[in-house]
UniProtKB/TrEMBL annotation:
<dbReference type="InterPro" id="IPR002818">
    <property type="entry name" value="DJ-1/PfpI"/>
</dbReference>
<feature type="domain" description="DJ-1/PfpI">
    <location>
        <begin position="35"/>
        <end position="202"/>
    </location>
</feature>
<feature type="compositionally biased region" description="Polar residues">
    <location>
        <begin position="1"/>
        <end position="16"/>
    </location>
</feature>
<dbReference type="Pfam" id="PF01965">
    <property type="entry name" value="DJ-1_PfpI"/>
</dbReference>
<keyword id="KW-0378">Hydrolase</keyword>
<keyword id="KW-0645">Protease</keyword>
<dbReference type="GO" id="GO:0016798">
    <property type="term" value="F:hydrolase activity, acting on glycosyl bonds"/>
</dbReference>
<dbReference type="GO" id="GO:0006508">
    <property type="term" value="P:proteolysis"/>
</dbReference>
<keyword id="KW-0326">Glycosidase</keyword>
<dbReference type="InterPro" id="IPR006286">
    <property type="entry name" value="C56_PfpI-like"/>
</dbReference>
<dbReference type="InterPro" id="IPR029062">
    <property type="entry name" value="Class_I_gatase-like"/>
</dbReference>
<dbReference type="GO" id="GO:0008233">
    <property type="term" value="F:peptidase activity"/>
</dbReference>
<feature type="region of interest" description="Disordered">
    <location>
        <begin position="1"/>
        <end position="30"/>
    </location>
</feature>
<comment type="similarity">
    <text>Belongs to the peptidase C56 family.</text>
</comment>
<protein>
    <submittedName>
        <fullName>Putative cysteine protease YraA</fullName>
        <ecNumber>3.2.-.-</ecNumber>
    </submittedName>
</protein>
């Protein structure tokens, strides 16, 4: 099995950049200077990790993989097929929202289920909620938002099996490919990545970028 760091722009295989992409790069990227945390652990759905990460990096953001796990995490395809392992940049116990400009919560059934039972992971997400910082979540990713008190009063979407949980937590669940509600963007599944990725870049680009307290190495 292959072990890899999160893919870099230079090593990715993508279609030739559009005129808009080229202009964005000339201007330093719409997310230049911003650092986005990606919170995940073993069982994360690989494409929900790698596609948004690539979109954020292409827009100029720095991304860091945050996890309760040490060393590496195991990504999956469709929950049951192991794919690649990814290097953890920072443990959740040492991470604080004040060091980041936004948060991404990928899905997969196993990863969010473990995260919502981890004290440090939930505390980390709650810090974003309390600070009003932008959060993006896809598929089962919104599960952790329930424990972080980040659902009540929001219109959002997710994998269909989370509908009752999110509704019981005070959210208004809708079946749409992507939903933007204030500082929260959500999507349902990997098939929505084509609209989810542009939406999260727009979310993080539009949010204020206050000076961060502390330093992310």
């Amino acid at each position: 099995m292959m072990t890899r760091n999160p893919p870099s722009q230079a090593g990715s295989t993508q279609a030739p950049p559009s005129a808009h992409d080229q202009a964005t790069r000339r201007n330093g990227g719409s997310l230049a200077g911003r650092t986005i945390a990606i919170l995940a652990t073993d069982g994360v759905e690989e494409v929900e990790l790698t596609d948004p990460m690539a979109a954020l990096r292409q827009a100029g953001a720095r991304t860091l993989l945050v996890s309760p796990a040490k060393g590496e995490i195991q990504a999956m395809e469709a929950d049951v097929h192991p794919t690649n392992r990814y290097h953890v940049d920072m443990q959740a116990s040492a991470a604080h929202a004040a060091e980041f400009d936004g948060l991404l919560l990928p899905g997969g059934t196993t990863s969010p289920d473990h995260l919502r039972m981890d004290h440090d992971a939930v505390r980390f997400v709650r810090e974003f909620v309390q600070a009003g910082k932008p959060i993006a979540a896809i598929c089962h990713g919104p599960w952790t938002l329930i424990d972080a008190q980040g659902v009540s009063g929001h219109t959002l979407t997710s994998w269909p099996s989370l509908r009752a949980d999110l509704t019981n937590a005070g959210g208004h669940w809708v079946d749409r490919p992507v939903v933007t509600d204030g500082m929260l963007v959500t999507s349902r599944n990997p098939g929505d990545l084509g609209v989810f990725c542009p939406a999260i870049v727009a979310l993080f680009a539009a949010a204020p970028a206050p000076a961060r307290h502390g330093h992310v190495a």
